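Quick one, tokens below. Sequence please?
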């Protein structure tokens, strides 16, 4: 087959894209049909050496123009051997981008002089996208595992701090009641205020660490977003425009209304702080059905998607994987410095609602904070809120009542015992579940109620509660907890515990809880 026309016909039928250029000019000698189709060209351009990039639309994976001196033609001339490249991306005229694997080979004449460069192209776009999706998936998994580990650490720290703050609250309350000095009263009031601030910080940390669902009732995300937007419009700098694009039909999810409002508020404030000078923040919602085959952070299913978009400075890719960590903040300058709990709280709330949150670059400029919340296939109906428990009347004098306190933390136990005695109750206490059960088995007939810590070494609160009920099924038990583990609390509630009191608590909260379970 010596006829060039026959060779051209055969080459045009090959599934591999072929290009041949003359050395040293780079003049095109041949380009087959597969090459023109792959590059999105109706006809071969008249490009010469040093001017290949623009006519062929050659770019780097980063989007920058490919360096002319690094093109396959140049590399082959320099190396005088076959080179293989996988960093060429063709930006076609129809807008499509094609990733190429290029095999470029020199052709020599009988005298050993290089006469041509032959290049074969393979479309590896699917391979590149699959590899990118794999790396992205591994990155998201690593971030999720890191945040999970941080969440476990935070939950443990929060539990310990709640025990310490319980001692502080009870001790300060007792001291203020007995202190005649006005100056010392003021000092104690400051300690009490600082303790309350610490309690709020711990609540935020527990919100980040919480991994359990707290489905309360049907919530309109549209209404939650509008409440936040109306409040923000009154307080934002007038140079920042706050817009909405909210879906009004079936914008309901099952969740906690106050938590979802806090979520929207934190995202809106974060968007505002990303804008330096005039700018725009858009809050929008949509219903999205994600198929199994769709790649991305949002799994398959039906989702209500909340997006808060700003045209600010964007997020540095180097820190994007850390923005949901507690106390990590970029707001270190200016009069208002960040605490690093805003997005951490968002992460905790989203996890509590079994959702997904991600932060990505906005088209053009800025950032998109995207939250996807699972949506039921049918619109949820309103659920009536349960009435608060009615305090039981006191049936006899407090002095006749014995309360058993079971808590492994000595300071918490001592402070609680002292407070109960100030309330006029008789008290016995135990440092662990096993000792508490021994005391209860001996004195169960005279015990009016039990104050039981949920998290203890050895026998945990749930196990102790079950054992107490076996000895005396009607004993009122007040569960106290400094943990954010709502699943375990809900489990003990379902078993019939009379009441639950969160640490830290003061004397009034403790008295009210005991009154509600019938001990006072």
């Amino acid at each position: 087959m010596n006829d060039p026309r026959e060779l051209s016909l055969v080459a045009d039928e090959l599934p591999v894209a072929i290009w041949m250029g003359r050395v040293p000019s780079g003049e095109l000698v041949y380009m087959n049909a597969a090459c023109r189709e792959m590059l999105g060209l109706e006809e071969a351009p008249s490009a010469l050496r040093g001017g290949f990039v623009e006519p062929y639309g050659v770019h780097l994976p980063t989007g920058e123009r490919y360096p002319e001196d690094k093109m396959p033609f140049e590399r082959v001339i320099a190396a005088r051997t076959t080179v293989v490249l996988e960093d060429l991306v063709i930006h076609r005229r129809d807008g499509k981008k094609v990733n190429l694997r290029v095999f470029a080979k020199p052709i020599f004449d009988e005298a050993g002089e290089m006469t041509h460069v032959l290049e074969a192209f393979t479309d590896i776009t699917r391979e590149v996208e699959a590899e990118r999706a794999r790396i992205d998936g591994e990155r998201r998994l690593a971030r999720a595992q890191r945040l999970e580990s941080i969440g476990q650490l935070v939950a443990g720290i929060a539990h310990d701090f709640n025990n310490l703050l319980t001692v502080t609250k009870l001790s300060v309350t007792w001291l203020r009641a007995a202190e005649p000095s006005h100056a010392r009263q003021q000092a104690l009031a400051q300690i009490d205020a600082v303790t309350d601030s610490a309690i709020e910080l711990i609540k935020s940390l527990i919100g980040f660490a919480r991994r359990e669902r707290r489905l309360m009732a049907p919530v309109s995300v549209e209404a939650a977003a509008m409440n936040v937007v109306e409040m923000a419009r009154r307080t934002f700098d007038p140079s920042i425009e706050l817009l909405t694009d909210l879906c009004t039909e079936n914008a309901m999810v099952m969740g906690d209304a106050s938590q979802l409002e806090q979520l929207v508020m934190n995202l809106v404030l974060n968007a505002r702080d990303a804008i330096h000078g005039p700018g725009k923040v858009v809050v929008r919602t949509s219903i999205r059905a994600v198929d199994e085959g769709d790649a991305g952070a949002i799994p398959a299913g039906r989702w209500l998607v909340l997006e808060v978009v700003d045209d600010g400075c964007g997020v540095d890719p180097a820190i994007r994987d850390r923005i949901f960590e507690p106390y990590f903040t970029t707001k270190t300058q200016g009069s208002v410095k960040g605490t690093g709990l805003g997005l951490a709280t968002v992460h905790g709330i989203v996890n509590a609602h079994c959702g997904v949150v991600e932060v990505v670059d906005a088209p053009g400029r800025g950032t998109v904070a995207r939250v996807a919340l699972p949506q039921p296939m049918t619109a949820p109906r309103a659920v009536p809120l349960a009435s608060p428990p009615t305090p039981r009347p006191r049936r006899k004098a407090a002095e006749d009542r014995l309360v058993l306190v079971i808590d492994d933390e000595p300071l918490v136990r001592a402070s609680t015992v002292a407070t109960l005695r100030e309330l006029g109750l008789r008290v016995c206490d135990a440092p662990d579940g096993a000792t508490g059960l021994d005391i209860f088995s001996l004195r169960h007939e005279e015990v009016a109620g039990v104050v039981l810590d949920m998290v203890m070494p050895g026998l945990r609160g749930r196990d102790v509660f079950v054992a107490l009920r076996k000895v005396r099924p009607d004993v009122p038990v007040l569960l106290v907890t400094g943990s954010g583990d709502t699943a375990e609390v809900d489990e003990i509630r379902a078993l019939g515990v009379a009441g639950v009191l969160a640490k830290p608590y003061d004397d009034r909260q403790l008295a009210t809880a005991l009154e509600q379970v019938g001990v006072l």
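Residues 332-340, 379-397 have pLDDT under 50 and may be disordered. The chain is about 40% helix and 25% strand.
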